[in-house]
């Protein structure tokens, strides 16, 4: 029987040891023998390559682990597309699985995703259920961002959240059965080869943040479904550290590329007018939210400089009206 070919992609930037731990978990998955698995590690020009390659050679993994050095740190989207291009040219591949450097597979994680995608050809993307390093569950998938979800997350007021609960972006998922979702975290995401070719992978204008959201949005428009598959288990060391879901920890100023990615996402997928209204609502809601937290002595729950950074990167300023649409290393699909 011919085994299904799965290419696991890890994009690393100064996370060599975490990547090595992830490779050991992939090796354990290979030992099950029910999939033909290769791994591509892309070092985004951080200097990780040599240490990882040493580990590969020490374990005689050269036949299934390929360490690539990207010419620049182009971010998550760029690094994955770099691997997609290499794998598609090298062949064969049936599915791609994206694995964060700070994530590790539990045995059977890939098999569960492959089996689900084979049984559900309308699905092009499937994601795992996560556990944190302490063993606690992180059963989260996501809704697409909208003007209402942006308003809710900006004001952070209980009554508003209750009224807009159907638009809150993070969704706690049922662990009994697979469920269709808007988008899933790229820390453990399986993509069909067909989807990667038709979508041309990720949009490389996203350096970090929103790249998975954009891919799942474009995939849905093209007729592909995204599913959360709780029988696939992955340990994610970062767990709930992402700013998308965390509200109660000590917050730091968010990087400018997050705001850039947000603007690209809304303009590219919803247009300039919708983005203008969204930015206006965010400024209004953030102002009210900051005032509420000031009056209740909860300023520590406000992300530093968030209002200033939102305005400076918003389409409320004419200098931000231009937004590049799409960029990818992968060739256009021939439609077959």
Mean pLDDT over all positions: 93
Radius of gyration, taken over Cα atoms and rounded to an integer in Å = 20 Å
Please state the overall shape, judged from the principal axes of the Cα atoms: globular
What is the helix fraction of residues, given as a range?
25-40%
* Total E-strand runs: 12
Structure description:
Helices cover 39% and strands 20% of the residues. It is of the alpha/beta class. The protein folds into two domains: 5-241, Spore Coat Polysaccharide Biosynthesis Protein SpsA, Chain A; 256-320. Strand 2 (36-43), helix 2 and strand 3 (65-69) form a beta-alpha-beta unit. The radius of gyration is 20 Å and the shape is globular. The chain starts with a strand and ends in a 24-residue tail after the last helix.
What key phrases describe this protein's structure?
10-stranded mixed beta sheet; 11 helices; 2 domains; Spore Coat Polysaccharide Biosynthesis Protein SpsA, Chain A; alpha/beta; about 325 residues; single chain
Topology (SSEs and partners):
Elements: E1 5-12, H1 16-30, E2 36-43, H2 49-58, E3 65-69, H3 75-90, E4 95-99, E5 103-105, H4 109-119, E6 123-131, E7 137-138, E8 140-142, H5 147-155, H6 158-163, E9 170-172, E10 179-181, E11 188-192, H7 193-199, H8 211-221, E12 225-236, H9 256-270, H10 272-295, H11 306-312
């Amino acid at each position: 029987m011919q085994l299904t070919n799965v290419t696991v992609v890890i994009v690393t930037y100064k996370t060599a040891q975490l990547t090595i731990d992830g490779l050991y978990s992939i090796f354990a998955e290979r030992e099950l023998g029910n999939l033909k698995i290769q791994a591509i590690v892309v070092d985004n020009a951080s200097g990780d390559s040599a240490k990882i390659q040493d580990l590969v050679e020490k374990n005689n993994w050269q036949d299934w682990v390929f360490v690539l050095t990207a010419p620049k740190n182009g971010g998550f989207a760029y690094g994955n597309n770099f691997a997609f291009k290499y794998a598609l040219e090298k062949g064969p591949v049936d599915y791609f699985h994206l694995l964060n450097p700070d994530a590790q597979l539990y045995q059977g994680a890939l098999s569960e995703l492959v089996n689900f995608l084979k049984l559900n050809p309308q699905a092009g993307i499937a994601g795992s259920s996560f556990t944190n390093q302490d063993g606690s569950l992180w059963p989260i998938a996501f809704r697409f961002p909208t003007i209402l979800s942006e308003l809710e997350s900006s004001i952070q007021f209980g009554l508003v959240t209750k009224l807009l609960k159907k638009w809150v972006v993070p969704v706690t998922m049922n662990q009994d059965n697979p469920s269709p979702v808007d988008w899933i975290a790229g820390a453990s995401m399986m993509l069909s080869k067909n989807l990667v070719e038709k979508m041309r992978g990720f949009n490389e204008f996203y350096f970090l943040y929103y790249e998975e959201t954009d891919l799942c949005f474009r995939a849905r428009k093209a007729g592909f479904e995204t599913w959360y598959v709780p029988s696939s288990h992955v340990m994610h060391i970062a767990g709930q550290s992402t700013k998308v879901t965390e509200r109660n920890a000590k917050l730091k100023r968010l990087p400018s590329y997050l705001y850039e990615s947000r603007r690209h996402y809304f303009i590219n997928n919803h247009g300039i007018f919708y983005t203008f209204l969204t930015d206006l609502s965010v400024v209004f809601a953030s102002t009210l939210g900051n005032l509420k937290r000031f009056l209740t002595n909860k300023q520590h729950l406000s992300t530093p400089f968030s209002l200033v950074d939102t305005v400076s990167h918003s389409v409320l300023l004419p200098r931000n009206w231009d937004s590049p649409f799409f960029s990818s290393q992968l060739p256009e699909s021939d439609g077959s």
